[in-house]
Each structure stands twice: as C-alpha cells, then as structure tokens.
Amino acid sequence: MVSYSKVLGMVSYSKVLEMVSYSKVLGMVSYSKVLGMVSYSKVLGMVSYSKVLGMVSYSKVLGMVSYSKVLGMVSYSRVLGMVSYSKVLGMVSYSKVLGMVSYSKVLGMVSYSKVLGMVSYSKVLGMVSYSRVVRNG
Q1: CA atoms of 132 and 57, how far apart (whole Å)
Q2: Cβ pair 68, 77 in contact under 8 A
Q3: Where in the chain are the domains?
Q4: SS3 assignment, position 88
Q5: Is 32 left (phi over 0), alpha (psi -120 to 50) or beta?
Q6: C-alpha dihedral sign at 5, 10, 89, 97
Q7: Other Cβ atoms within 10 Å of 93 Cβ, number
Q8: How far apart are CA 99 and CA 81, in angstroms?
Q9: Cβ distance 72 to 80 under 8 Å?
Q10: How many Å apart are CA 114 and CA 25, to the nearest integer?
Q11: First to last CA, the chain
C-alpha cells in the first residue's frame, strides 16, 4: 500500500505495516516495523507508542487519551466529543464533532462521517472508501 493526501500533505507506505508515514500539515511522523510503532504529531500535540499494540496515546490538542493492551482498547477525546471501545476490534466508535459512527466486529467494519463526507467499508480490509470535503456555503 502507498497513499497520498494533498489536503494533509501526507504520504504513507505500508508493505503490510513495515509502514512509514509523513504529514506536513499535521507535522506528523510515524514508523511501524509491524507495529513496534512510534508516532509524533507537532500540530496535534500527540505522542503514540505501540510495541505491538500494548499502545498508549496522548494528544494535548485533541484532549485525547487512548489505551490498548493489544486492542482491549478504550479511547476518549474531549475535543472531538469521541468515545471508542474495542475488546479486540469488536469495536464501536462515536464522535459528535465529526458526526462519525464506526462499527467493526473484527473489521467487517462500516464507517460514516458527515463532517468529513466519508464512508468506508472493509469486510476485513478489502476496503472501499469515499471521502468528500464538506464546505459550508
């Protein structure tokens, strides 16, 4: 997998999660080596750590904390009005601010975000996505 987002000034590469990521807009760098993972975003005031998803995460800007212990996962973001739960990707997600709902049941996954103009579908990461930037006026 290779991806590019002009809006985020982002490039990604995966080759099944050996992964590198860079986003100019988010001031973000990531590294994975199959989810030994570190992440830093200057703009989001975010740090992450994984060691294969024992994971902790903190973002000052998003008012976010995460915890994983291999995706038993809980997540909260005050700024996004978001809560997540995983119990190993049985997963539910809700964000008031993004107008977003997600569901996984181990990545059979559906996603919708009104604000991001986004729909996703996975059926275990065969994945289809659509995103349209919503502009007011």
Answers
A1: 28
A2: no
A3: 1-70, 71-137
A4: coil
A5: alpha
A6: negative
A7: 17
A8: 9
A9: no
A10: 22
A11: 35
Check residue 12 and report its DSSP letter: E
What DSSP element (H or E) covers 29?
A: strand 28-31
**Side-chain half-sphere of 76: how many Cα atoms within 13 Å?**
2
53 touches 72 (CB < 8 A)? no
62-77 residue pLDDT tens: 788 888 888 788 889 8
* pLDDT per residue as tens digits for the range 51-105: 877 888 888 887 888 888 887 888 898 887 888 888 877 888 888 877 888 888 7
Structure tokens belonging to residue 34: 């199959």
Per-position b or e across 38-60, b if 16+ CB within 10 A of its CB: ebebeebebebebeebebebebe
- Calpha distance 31→108 (Å, rounded): 26
Torsion sign, CA atoms 48, 34, 91, 121: positive
